[in-house]
Amino acid sequence: MNAASFSTVPATGSSRLFKSPGPTRPSLRSRPFHLVAWAAASILALTACGGNKEEPRDEAARETIKLTERSEDLRALIDAELAAGNKRIVIPNGRYRVRTQGGNHLVFKNLSDVDIVAENVELVCTTTVGAMKFERCSNVTVRGMTIDYDPLPFTQGTIVAMAPDKSWMDFEVAKGYPEDELEERVQIYDPETGELRRGDARWEPTIESLGEHRYRVRKSARYRFDPALDTEQVGDILVTNNNSGGPGSPHAITLHGCDGMRFEDITVFASPCFGFLEYDSNGSSYIRCIVDRRDPADDPVERAQARMRSLNADAFHSKFAPKGPAIIGCTARFQGDDCVNINGKYHYVSG
């Protein structure tokens, strides 16, 4: 299934659905199975974006306190509990900065029937690779964790100049945002509303450094100005990807070959790609999980601009699941692509 089915951006004082531009859907006559898959995924995306009244919010679980910086090694703390045979692990409150290991920050393999309680716990990823990866795990529950990145997997700044036909534009990175290795995944926001100024455009992959925190992005060689589409202007906020650190899985939480996993009250403020990715996994549950951009009042890093983006791509993404995920009472906002994308393999049937 093609990506970019649905994503959400908020209207003033509310949320509304924003239908992303994307490839034209195939006709029913030519590719019926593709059309059916697209429709099913769209219904699930709307459910996830709108929430679900069947699962009430646990306000006690959402209660937050001012977090203190913890010096303990979070990976060692959890490993010690697992080595002792404990099936219920309660992580002490606080903010934990974690270094990568094997292309992820935390990796869990072959766990079963374990409950990880992480209420008022924040995992700060220090490179732009995955936060948590679960391989061949079953009936594991994670509760209450917040995930963020420092440095962020995106940067943003103000457009300060552009070509008369808007074929190129210069932007200046705002104070507090990273400049490690910028990568094209450009979105442009109206600073007054905090909403997207325009839909997607095609951009050249290279971002040119001009010095003094300024960069130039160019639209593709086939670009031709269209006043109905090219509505960006000087003063708008430009957001694009930022890479930092070594290679690894780019998704905040990944499940591979897992069964009966459950995530409750998880908040993801940033991710280099997806928020939650599962593949070859069965019967996962996501309960009251939140994907959203972080409020400046809650951001431990002082920034000249409020964050415009949450994740760089999909909020929830499922591939090859015998039994698909239950996404209940969750919120997905300001991510760079789909709210929910559920897909698998397609086989042509004729006759």
Any chance you could write out the topology, listing elements then pairs?
Blueprint: E1 7-11, E2 14-18, H1 32-50, H2 59-62, E3 69-70, H3 74-83, E4 88-90, E5 94-98, E6 104-109, E7 115-125, E8 130-135, E9 141-149, E10 154-162, E11 168-173, E12 181-189, E13 208-211, E14 214-218, E15 237-243, E16 253-256, E17 262-264, E18 267-268, E19 276-279, E20 285-287, E21 290-291, E22 316-319, E23 326-328, E24 331-332, E25 340-343
Parallel strand pairs: 3-5, 4-7, 5-7, 6-8, 7-9, 8-16, 9-17, 9-18, 16-19, 17-20, 18-21, 19-22, 20-23, 21-24, 22-25
Antiparallel strand pairs: 1-2, 10-11, 10-15, 11-14, 12-15, 13-14
Tell me about this structure.
This protein is mainly beta and 351 residues long. The protein folds into two domains: 45-150 and 246-343, Pectate Lyase C-like (3 Solenoid); 154-240, Beta Barrel (Thrombin, subunit H). The chain has three helices and 25 strands. The longest helix has 19 residues, at 32-50. The protein starts with 6 loop residues before the first strand and ends in an 8-residue tail after the last strand.
Task: Summarize it.
The chain has 351 residues and is mainly beta.
Silhouette: globular
What is the helix/strand order? EEHHEHEEEEEEEEEEEEEEEEEEEEEE
Any idea of the CATH class of the largest domain?
Mainly Beta
Distance between the termini: 23 Å
